[in-house]
Amino acid sequence: MSLNNIRIVLIETSHPGNIGSVARAMLTMGITDLCLVNPRHFPDKQATIMASGAEHILQQARIVSSVQDAIADCTLVIGTSAREQRSVPWPLMSAREAGTFIAEHSTTGKTAILFGRESSGLTNKELESCQYLLSIPVNPDFRSLNIASAVQVIAYECAVALEQQPVNTQQRRELATAKDMQNYYRHLEKTLIDIRYMDPDKPRLLMRKLRCLYGRIQLTKSEVNLLRGILSAAQGIKFIPRNQRKPADDTRSLSED
Amino acid sequence: MSLNNIRIVLIETSHPGNIGSVARAMLTMGITDLCLVNPRHFPDKQATIMASGAEHILQQARIVSSVQDAIADCTLVIGTSAREQRSVPWPLMSAREAGTFIAEHSTTGKTAILFGRESSGLTNKELESCQYLLSIPVNPDFRSLNIASAVQVIAYECAVALEQQPVNTQQRRELATAKDMQNYYRHLEKTLIDIRYMDPDKPRLLMRKLRCLYGRIQLTKSEVNLLRGILSAAQGIKFIPRNQRKPADDTRSLSED
């Protein structure tokens, strides 16, 4: 599986809770390879708590003392950055572009995605180890993206790109055919006349409006049957002698909410 | 700005820290409208700490006691769900599809995105207030997506989709609000009982199916009025003495095509 070819590298992370949250975020997206470069406090109880079920990601995490060790076996190295302008114009990708790029690459080799310190990000020297920079588009007035949130978004983009197909867990539904809809509209029109909502001599645009409304839904066959059952129930009552009905005009007003 | 038309609704959140993390996640993507339905502990110091610079989102958050109050002025209501199978096949979108859909919608009306309890998500009753369900694709072996991470991914998808949105040339239509729809469903249910299509003692899944059906359409206000006019016309006939009606069972079969 290509997700195995994606490594998350955290550099000098200050808060162990963040390491745990990152592990959890990774695992929700199916990424399991975590490498920690000189973490301040690790292992740590707070990391375990925040991993919240993803503790094995922490247990199997590799701890190294340099970025070079973390990325040695990788064929693609991408740095993350919140800053937009740098003195050296590094090739910059959005998270979405990076997801696609990494997904393509992960069939052939390992990718490392580098996350810098919570306070100051990656150093220029660390950036020089990267082939590309990745930036998540953020609110220019509030760039304070939590490190685990950044990992979550990027891991999500990689997973979606690897899926290639949009998730569709929806059950297959048998949609109504044009003929089903034709029969439905005919039934609806007849019912509207029967319940005296529509005057067949002055139909106005009523049926067109209703076609416009129901046409948008993509009804299933069973839904058409349900709606037609309701129409039939409404029609059933029409067999009452007309002279005993209330005047139609009184029945057209909307009921109170 | 269309991001102003997106509301994050958190329902009965247990951990105040999560509320703070959600506020931070929202603001990084430029979303500021937060509504809390019966939060367990709020305001709370832990929420403020986790907001980490986004405290004003918490301060201006609206606290309400029902989902209906949270969504009353919204014209699109989307529920988030980690579960895949449900008895009624609600229209399900991926986070990406939802982002695009919400971006398109946000030029004309407000969208509420509902997040359920950390432990148990949304109840079926709450799901019935939704027109669509949104599911973030996750690792089937570890579905434990933190609520703030889920908000982060969805807010990110909305922000990216809004960035990419083409100029909307679609005609402005005044969409029905959640309150309009609530009144419509109440009227519909009463009518179905009146015309003896629905037995109030054995309602089965009828109203849920109809909510699922009409929820997909994005009805306009004038369409809701049209449909309610039809309901009133159908109800008008109910005042005929019962002993002169045909038996209800005979009227439930579909008419011939």
Walk me through the topology.
Two copies of one chain form a homodimer.
Chain A: E1 6-11, H1 16-28, E2 33-37, H2 45-51, H3 55-59, E3 62-64, H4 67-71, E4 76-80, E5 92-94, H5 95-105, E6 111-115, H6 124-127, E7 132-135, H7 147-163, H8 178-194, H9 206-215, H10 221-236, H11 248-251
Parallel strand pairs in A: 1-2, 1-6, 2-3, 4-6, 4-7, 5-7
Main beta-sheet strand count, sense and barrel state of chain A: 7 strands, parallel
Uncertain residue segments of chain A: 165-171, 238-245, 247-257
* CATH topology tier name of the largest domain in chain A: Alpha/beta knot
**Estimated helix fraction of chain A:** 40-55%
Biggest interface, residues from each chain = A-B, 83 and 84 residues
Distance between the termini of chain A: 56 Å
In short:
The structure is a homodimer of 257-residue chains. The first copy, chain A, has 11 helices and 7 strands.
